[in-house]
């Protein structure tokens, strides 16, 4: 069974195959990294809204340059450029710790996904504090 993580239909397929088996396909390093980043941003959002300190930027974010993909052809110039912009936006967020810097980082997630990986876009949009649309 081949499931492409960026596939719009993945959620439906996974639902059909049963809840506990969410990880029945083997996730690529990049997919796992992305899942962790998506989780992390829920926590970060709560902290930004509460004006809590964010601490320091998680080291594993930098694995975006090294993690292996489900489809290695995704690792192109576009991806590399946006991965750099993403890390710059995260560094800015951890420095400024503002709502604006948070939404700016999420916007970089969105920009890369609009080009690369449509499936998670609805999840990414939910992370915004103020919508970009
Ligand atoms: C530079 C481009 C880029 C950026 C920036 C980026 N992503 Fe991704 N994302 C991808 C690609 C490519 C994949 C597919 C990875 C794979 O399947 O190996 C992916 C996969 C995902 C997935 C699906 C993982 C799964 O279950 O298979 C989620 C969720 C996700 N990204 C959320 C995010 C969030 C949240 C951010 C920002 C915090 C973000 N992404 C930033 C390109 C990007």
Report on the architecture of this protein.
- The protein has 133 residues and is mostly helical.
- Helices cover 56% and strands 0% of the residues.
- The protein is built from five helices and no strands.
- The longest helix has 22 residues.
- It starts with 9 loop residues before the first helix and ends in a 6-residue tail after the last helix.
- 15% of the residues are buried.
- Bound molecules: heme C.
- The site of heme C has 27 residues, from helix 2, helix 3, helix 4 and helix 5.
Annotate the secondary structure layout:
Blueprint: H1 10-17, H2 29-50, H3 77-96, H4 99-116, H5 121-127
The structure holds heme C.
InterPro entries: Cyt_c/b562
GO molecular function: electron transfer activity; heme binding; iron ion binding
